[in-house]
């Protein structure tokens, strides 16, 4: 059953910012780079259930180093989306040959790109292929971009620098192609610590951070997906725009741990570490080196208190989706578009 049928709501009820929408007649085939991601899956499902007939979704069936997802998980996502009417294609950021089929005939791209080795070659190559295939609008999810707080992240966290550089490249695409862009710059996704620490939460009932009790600017991936749907359905309004999408306000990781205890029915112990001990702990979990580095760098920035600054927050998200951003409690309660097979988280 669809999430709209389960709730008895129309899409415009779920995302008030849509108003009385009609599809942009120029939307054409939409290619979504990741049908297994927390944002991409929801965007694909929302478009299909709203009645868009041409949704192409990229699925990668390789081994996932984060979150314990496997090929069966990818297959479940693919089957669910295909049943709704999506065209599912193999897509691998590390395989340039997969770009051709994914982008053929696509007018619009919704891109969630992971941090990876050789990204400085991968993203420009994908964008070049998008130009060759006459893509007209390119929507990309990024990290916070505008303001002093965002600049501090870009200067100190390689993940933020990576996204900022990709954004710079995308913004210049209109100078030599027909591509317009919309960049959705999200703060820390509420799903990220749950996915990265999912095994530990399930088996050890521990939530480990190094934010030193400072508030964190967490935003719901559901809200980011809803903002993307609004932009996709009304791309003319949002053409060549950059938005900072932040959460409702700072929340400490200790408060998050209490919410996890409440919603998963087991005591989740919050363990606060220093920066170096945290980095060692992440490395000991067997996570890739880039994730060890970025996770530690993010914790150091959180501990600095940057997410408690008013400049870390923006009204952009509420303006786009027409409702208040989800709180962390709202996010945990919202099971309407959970990916198949995902239970914790």
TrEMBL record:
The name on file for this protein is NmrA-like domain-containing protein
Question: Pfam families, per this entry?
Answer: NmrA
Domain NmrA-like positions: 29-332
- Top-level taxon of origin: Eukaryota
Q: PANTHER family, alphabetically?
A: PRESTALK A DIFFERENTIATION PROTEIN A, PTHR43162
